[in-house]
Amino acid sequence: MQLDQRLVDAAVDQMNRRWPADQYGGAAAVYLEDGQILTSVCLDNINAGVTLCHETGAICQAYTLDKRVTASVCVGREADSTEIFVLAPCGICQERLALWGPEVQVAVGDPAGWAARTLLEVNPYYWASRFAQGSGWPSEAEHLA
């Protein structure tokens, strides 16, 4: 499945269910190869070292289900604001999504609101390419080795 407004809307819906409008909110959604959408939110904690990104739950659930992630989006909203913004995946989430290859689409913020980019476009110098067996990007088997 390609990243589209339906996936963004699923993340926004999850955020709105989890956090009231007067609080900061955020959520993520991923498409699986069969079109299923998984959503998740971050794990907030007083100890910032144990928090998790919004995408983490959905990524782990996809992996648990042995399903391939094809697209991912993370959204946020400041407290007392109606403006929704899109956050590109952090480096750690890029690493998590890399398991499914360089063509996984991720949402990035842009002047129009958001745009879809592949992991390869977001990270053209992916460090693990050094360990790919001639393909330019490590295979799923190489990620799991």
Concise summary:
The protein has helices spanning 5-18, 56-64, 91-97, 119-122, 140-144, and strands spanning 25-32, 37-40, 69-77, 84-87, 105-108, 115-118.
Key descriptive features of the protein:
globular; 5 helices; 145 residues; alpha+beta; 6 strands; 6-stranded mixed beta sheet
Commentary on this structure:
The structure is a single chain. By secondary structure, the chain is an alpha+beta fold. Helix content is 27%, strand content 23%. The protein is built from five helices and six strands. The protein has helices at residues 5-18, 56-64, 91-97, 119-122, 140-144; strands at 25-32, 37-40, 69-77, 84-87, 105-108, 115-118. Strands 1, 2, 3, 4, 5 and 6 form a six-stranded mixed beta sheet that branches. β1 and β2 (37-40) form a beta hairpin. The longest helix is centred in the first third of the chain and has 14 residues, at 5-18. It starts with a helix and ends with a helix.
